[in-house]
Amino acid sequence: MSIWTELSGIDYRHAYVETGDVTTRALQAGPQDGEHVVFLHGTTGHLEAFVRNIPAHASAGYRCHAIDMLGHGYTGKPDRPGEIPAYVEHLLAYLDAVGAERAHIVGESLGGWVGSWAASEYPDRVASLQLLCMGGTKINPEVMERLKTSTRAAALDDDISFTRERLRLLWADWDEDLGDELTQVRYEIYHHPDFQRNLHNLLALQELDARERNLLRPDRMARIKAPTLVVWGNKNPFGEVPEAEAITAAIPGARLKIFNECGHWPQHEKAEVYNPLSLAFLAEASKAE
Length: 289
What we know:
By secondary structure, this protein is α/β, with parallel strands linked by helices. Helices cover 45% and strands 17% of the residues.
């Protein structure tokens, strides 16, 4: 199994889209007239996090976009701290560039944080939200330090085992074949000079002052009007199930689905469960509009 076999059944485009002053890398698939679904990865991640999800969603008729977020992957890297309003601005610029007035947002970890903030500030642009092991609602110095330490080692040491260990944090049960391929993809990204120069900006939200400034508080989540699905792994190393329950309680009408034997990447590790759940949720959200 590889990234290419995951994508082999669909017609897709690996694109670079001009979004304001930043060039954004995207994987696009599905009919041009389909409802837009935008997939947002986690901290220091990249669009390959969704290779097991794009085919099912594109085949169901959605216009899919998995993007490298601002400063991430092969997207442009302006020298400014990666804080949530900047990520939201970049997301909206991407939507404008592809002609999407509204989009369903699927956000994993940091991506869910960005999607929730966008939905609270720009409700007319967000048709629905899926929050996959979303971060940003708590300040946990131990978790923040683990993320900083593991990412710096992966990016700044030439030994690829550090990149593999950083990626392994996301899985409860490591997928040897696809995991090794994703390790190589991530290693190449992490060891690009532009990525290394920008690493401090990507880790800005792991610093106490910046995190406090950007925290996704209950009063902000209460403003979210979009239909919302929270998905969590019961072995998520960055947040336990009570955190997911609190997020669900804070967002009006949100529902929660817990995946057993699953870590921080439910859309990937449990794709066979996640994809039909997501498609059913999207169909229901579309009918409700």
